[in-house]
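> example.struct
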């Protein structure tokens, strides 16, 4: 049996692979949209508190300006991991007897599936980092081979907090609950959206749970405030509890990525938190992929791929290797940009 390395088969296989658990993406950017061109419209929404107008029933309706504006038409950055697959080479090992009963064809198919999952994971992890960067800074910095760009979504500068001195949550005289009350109210006043999720970096989560005012406030006798009941969810995520007064779920998120130098770094910095609303319509918009050579070799007259991840494969003779190439053009858009807040609190 020959493995099917056609673009159509590879794209369909990747689409069926379960993605990794990207907590920030799933929580705040859980909508996916796809452009039928290389470009997407970048829209920043600034929600107001406007009222519907009164008019006489004998008069025509009043035309009102919509909240939001198109900043620019933008071509999202291209993610393009590429590596060698050795799946085909396993087909030549028919003389090997495997203890689990599998044969060379099984092993080759499994290796190809693992390679496809690896490529999908790399793209998903980059998307998680992009989403987190937008929530932390209100901006997206795109820097790589042949590209260096910054998208500033115009978030209110006051939505980035840096606590110092006695205000730090590691100080016994600080008041984390008062901070959360004030910040939640500020976001609601600006957008009409009350935040419902708060995500702590590692050190923030530890400081919050150890703070004497928090332990006293969540004493079992004070059940009206809420409950602290830590529970491990998916990898890297711990649900810490819920604040009834603010209708706020609390999480600690500790997950890593490797930078270009192979250094392990936290996706969400240990000293920061993200506060936001899951109703702010955050989404990932994906630009279309143009790859004329891949479409032509597949005998197709189509010229653009609309979807999440495009995959192709090709061979080289010297050295004799087969490559898998993944392409994706995701762009995180945060809906109402002022519905999110970042704070450095430890």
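> example.seq
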């Amino acid at each position: 049996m020959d493995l099917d390395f056609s673009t159509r088969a590879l794209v369909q296989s990747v689409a069926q692979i379960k993605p990794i658990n990207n907590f920030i993406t799933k929580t705040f950017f859980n909508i996916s949209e796809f452009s039928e061109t290389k470009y997407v419209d970048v829209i920043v929404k600034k929600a107001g508190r406007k009222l519907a107008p009164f008019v006489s029933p004998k008069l025509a309706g009043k035309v009102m300006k919509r909240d939001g504006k198109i900043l620019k038409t933008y071509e999202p950055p291209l993610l393009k991991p590429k590596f060698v697959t050795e799946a085909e080479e396993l087909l030549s090992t028919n003389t090997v007897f495997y203890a689990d009963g599998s044969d060379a064809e099984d092993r080759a198919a499994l290796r190809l599936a693992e390679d496809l999952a690896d490529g999908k994971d790399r793209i998903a992890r980059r998307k998680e980092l992009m989403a987190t960067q937008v929530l932390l800074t209100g901006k997206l910095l795109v820097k790589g081979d042949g590209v260096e760009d910054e998208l500033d979504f115009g978030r209110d500068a006051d939505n980035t907090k840096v606590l110092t001195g006695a205000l730090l949550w590691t100080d016994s005289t600080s008041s984390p609950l008062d901070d959360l009350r004030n910040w939640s109210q500020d976001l609601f006043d600006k957008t009409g959206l009350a935040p419902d999720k708060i995500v702590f970096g590692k050190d923030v989560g530890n400081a919050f749970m150890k703070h004497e005012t928090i332990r006293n406030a969540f004493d079992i006798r004070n059940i009206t405030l809420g409950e602290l009941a830590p529970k491990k969810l998916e990898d890297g995520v711990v649900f810490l509890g819920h604040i009834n007064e603010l209708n706020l779920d609390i999480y600690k998120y500790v997950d890593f990525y490797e930078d270009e130098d192979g250094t392990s770094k936290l996706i969400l910095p240990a000293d920061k938190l993200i506060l936001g609303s899951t109703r702010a319509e955050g989404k990932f918009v994906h630009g279309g992929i143009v790859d004329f050579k891949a479409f032509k070799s597949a005998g197709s007259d189509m010229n653009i791929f609309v979807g999440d991840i495009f995959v192709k494969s090709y061979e080289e003779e010297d050295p004799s290797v087969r490559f898998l190439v993944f392409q994706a053009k995701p762009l995180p858009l945060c809906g109402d940009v002022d519905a999110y807040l970042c704070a450095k609190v430890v």
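> remarks
The CA atoms of residues 156 and 292 lie 42 Å apart.
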